[in-house]
Amino acid sequence: MKALVCSALLPDYAGVGLEDRPVPEPGPHEVRIRIKAASLNFPDLLMTEGKYQLKPDLPFVMGMEFAGVIDAVGEGVTGFAPGDEVSGGNRIGAFTEYAVVPAATVRRKPAAISFAAAASYSAAYLTAYVSLVRRGNLQKGETLLVHGASGGVGLAAVDVGRLLGAKVIATSASALKREILKAYGADHVLPDSGFREAVKDLTGGRGADVIFDPVGGDVFDESVRCIAFDGRLLVIGFTSGRIPSVNVNMPLIKGFSVVGVRAGEYGRQFPERGRENMETIWKWAEEGKVHPRIHAEVLLSDWRRAFEMMRDREIVGKVAIVM
Fold this sequence. Notes:
Layout lengths: L1 E5 L9 E5 L9 E10 L2 H6 L12 E2 L3 E9 L11 E5 L8 E5 L3 E3 L6 H5 L2 H14 L7 E4 L5 H12 L3 E5 L3 H10 L3 E3 L5 H7 L5 E6 L3 H7 L3 E9 L13 H6 L2 E4 L2 H7 L1 H16 L7 E6 L3 H9 L6 E5 L1
Parallel strand pairs: 9-10, 9-12, 10-11, 12-13, 13-14, 15-16
Antiparallel strand pairs: 1-2, 1-4, 3-5, 3-7, 3-16, 5-6, 6-8
Helix pairs in contact: 3-4, 3-10, 9-10
């Protein structure tokens, strides 16, 4: 079988390449999945240079999320059988034609969404849910400002914010992406710089109640200037490359909170809530209440094009690598 392997931590994906590997056999309580699609996430790119907090031992098969069809089950597996359509994630190991994973880590793929959408769903929508519901306490009728809104996580936040009944303001650097965001359902769409006064105008001078920020840098700095009293500024990441800071007199005077979000760690710290989070987002998918957007499907053999699309910020939503 073919697998995309990172063998060395080098710039420009120089340590990444396709390898032929034997098809693995499932052990007790494991299932083997014929992968149909796997999702590309920004941490995948960071891991090729050792710049992500997860640093797997080299060499490792890349890819964090997948969807496919079970084709073999190990001893002791109940509830699954060959032919079942499933999705899951294992932090690494998804960019391959066959993967063996613990049966407990997969779930049935909702019939309402494609393999590409199922592979691209969990991480983005879990982050959006934990951010807006668990950490941001977003309420119906509040104003949500989403930065990096054209990315997979940002677009999920737009979708979840809409579902929760918030007024959604989305930002993006690209005029074309802003048109797509407006069509997708954002109430207002703004450039990702110079948005402060527009946010104030759109909220009658109050500012945004919840700000979802995976960008950091200058975007964070300007967000501090247009957040409402009792607002929640959610720190998701730093795709701009600069980790910002804030003088603590600003949250004191303006009465807002700066809240860190790590969706996976939240589930590990609070396992029961973690299970509830996953059940909720997958129920939404089954009921057709959310609309994950697949920007492109790229063959595994053409993996570099997918990586470059993400690196160059061409994507609105997610890119799926298909087998």
